[in-house]
Amino acid sequence: MAHKLLSLSEAVRRFSWDGMQYSSGAALPIGADALVFGREMVRAGRRDVHALFHCNSQQLNLLCAADVIGKAECGFSGLEGFGFANGLRRAVESGRVVLEDYSNLSMGLRFLAGALNWPFALATTNIGSDLQYRSAFAPEDYPSRSKIPGVVDPFTGNRYGALSPLRPDVAVVHVTMADPEGNAIILGTEWSRYELSRAAKSLVLVADFIVRTECMRQYPNLVRIPGVIVDAVVYWPFSAWPQASPGVHDGDEAHMRFMNQALATEAGYAEYRERFIDGYRTRAQFRALIGEENVERLTNGPTRFLMDPYRRWIVSEAEIEALEA
Amino acid sequence: MNYTRQEMMAIATGREIRDGELAIFGVGLSMLAGFFAKAHHAPRVRAITEAGIFGATPIGGLPWGVECNRISADAVSFTNAIDALGVLVASGRCDVGIIGAAQLDKFGNVNTTGIWDGDIGPTYRPPRVRLTGSGGANDIAVGCKRYVIMAAHDKKRFVERVDYISSPGYLEGGNARSRYPFPGSGPSAIVTTLGVLRPDPVTKEFLLDGYYAFSSPDEVRAHTGWPLRYSPKLSVVPEPSDAELAALRHVDETGMLRRS
Q1: Closest approach of B221 to chain A, Cα-based (Å)
Q2: A262 FRET partner, CA 20 to 30 A, in A132, A176, A211, B144?
Q3: Alpha-carbon distance A186 to B104, whole Å?
Q4: Reported ipTM
């Protein structure tokens, strides 16, 4: 059977490098985002990465604290109800990370433009604000003519803006379930994972469940990422932890706070790294780190029923390990 | 007083939402105000979040974010950012939005990007305090037919000129906003912990339109960083009714608005 399953460490070895343009999806601050890929990038010592994240997540927060990131572009840089992202904040305030701001719509449109190979996407928002006039990447260019340059609507003569397309070297996309060939179903908002998966030069999926292809044949309308565009599939339950994966587990509120608090200082980050990055190697060790009782509690949340129609096709751990071997 | 200042702010904001409207709410206070309106006087409000989550009422407490499981557990449709913020908001279709502000000025321009302690100057530099950035607020400020800004009222926040315009209000005032082909007509109100401000129809400067039973026009002025002018219609905002408080507290079941 042709499959694309790859271990997490091998996926990070093959699909990340210093100075790359790296995108994570969905890059939501409290929802789906494959944090484990970022943890592994920290362990691999990646440097000078240019992050293209739709929004900040605990992953970008961590990568900023760990000095993996040199430049970043995003639409939102906080953690929603969990406040400011301390790791990112420290890195941006000190000038260690240069952060270019857009709005959430603009980031999605830039991925779409990259996917379509358009020269630019039309900005009907962001114009007339400092999102257009101020550029962290070109600080002398004020009011900026290079970040969101003006364009004229040839039909009405109205002035809009041009958004540069994004084509990340690699996108790592969190999906709820994938088959071994990379056909994938997402539960919860798709956010910009459709556009991002098509914009990236290489695409790695990180899945909570591996399911049989029969599942995809039953619900083909729901397969927004078909295997033909996927390079590798990583199986890693709780990859989004402490963030949430709708249908699979809730966010871990205590660890969301704990992690962000730790990232507020160098010493806190060092302790966090020791326990929650260097402190595991395998999926079983990672699960043990979250804690069995905690896993039980988080997986019994209010969205659990969303996964019910698909459970009959879940591939067992033993079968996955046989494929990975 | 049997309610907090934060509760008064949420109720006054919720009163701005009309039944049947297509409405977009952000995380935190704005979602509380929006779902309070739905629970109290606007049962047919069509609420969306910018994550593209449709038909949901939060379960188990206030959602931690626009994509939280507390809202995903009760949805009829999940779509995406371009659908919610582009097709429904930036297009001009959405009736009303609610956004927050770390800093705002007398023309309703909002800064949520960073604090530079004044003018950034001709060359961009990192902020002293990095905030959250725009998120979807810029798209809401440009696209929604009208929107409400919610903010705790203090002098540091209500400034003559924001350090950075993350979301455009009326820019320099007057008809400055019409330089841009924005579908939305701009902020209709600033609702604060001390009162309600509305724009002058011509100058677009925000004037004090209402103060609360526990505040006074002088107090609002003292906490505003520009010389705040009073609307000719200035009056006291009605206190929360028992029904309003009950509806709000049902939505705010974790008591977020009663803490301070």
Answers
A1: 27
A2: A176
A3: 38
A4: 0.97
B7, B16, B21, B50: which is the annotated catalytic residue?
Answer: B50
* Closest residue on chain A to B62 (Cα): A81
d(CA A130, CA B40): 38
Q: Residues A203, A138: one domain?
A: no
Residue A305's domain comprises 5-101+167-324
Residues A184, A149 within the same domain = no
Active site residue B244: no
Residue A10 Cα, gap to closest chain B Cα (Å)? 31
Distance CA A139, CA A50 (A): 17
Any idea what the CATH number is for the domain that residue A182 is in?
3.40.1080.10
Does A153 share its domain with A215?
A: no
Distance CA A186, CA B155 (A): 45
Residue type, A147: K
Q: Quick: pLDDT tens for A253-281.
A: 999 999 999 999 999 999 999 999 999 99
Residue A61 lies in a domain: yes
Using CB atoms, pick whichever of B28, B124, B183 lies closest to residue A81. Answer: B28
Task: Provide the pairing of β-strand B77-78 with B103-104.
Answer: unpaired
Closest CA to A241 of A280, A202, A212: A280
What's the pTM?
Answer: 0.98
Q: Based on the structure, what is the number of domains in chain A?
A: 2
- Search chain B and give the residue with CA nearest A157: B181
Interface with chain B: mutation pick from A94, A191, A196, A250, highest number of B CBs within 10 Å: A191
Q: How big is chain B, counted in residues?
A: 260
By the 8 A CB rule, do A121 and A163 touch? Answer: yes
> What is the average per-residue pLDDT within A164-189?
98
Tokens of residue B237, six digits: 């905002």
Binary contact (B81, A191; C-beta < 8 A): yes
Residue A19 vs residues A22, A47, A49, A273, B130: alpha-carbon distances, Å: 9, 7, 5, 22, 24
Partner residue opposite B165 with nearest CB, options A82, A129, A192: A129
Same domain, A16 and A86: yes
For chain B positions 200-259, those within 8 Å of chain A (CB to CB) are none
Q: Please tell me the distance from the alpha carbon of residue B220 to that of residue B234, in angstroms, as a whole number.
A: 12
Taking alpha carbons only, the member of B7, B3, B55, B38 closest to residue B152 is B7
A27 and A173 together in one domain: yes
Q: For tokens 């004090």, name the residue.
A: B208
In the predicted model, what is the mean pLDDT of chain A? Answer: 97
Q: Which two tokens stand for residue B166?
A: 């993350």
- A159 with A225, same domain: the answer is no
* Helix axis angle, B242-251 to B29-40, nearest 10°: 130
Greatest distance between any 2 Cα atoms in chain A: 63
Contact residues, chain A, for B86 at CB < 8 Å:
105, 108-109
**DSSP-derived 3-state class of residue B227:** coil
Compute the nearest-CA separation of A321 from chain B (Å): 30
Neighbour tally for A97: CB within 10 Å: 26
Residue A80 has pLDDT above 70, yes or no: yes
- From CA A115, how far away is CA B40, in angstroms rounded? 44
Average pLDDT, chain B: 96
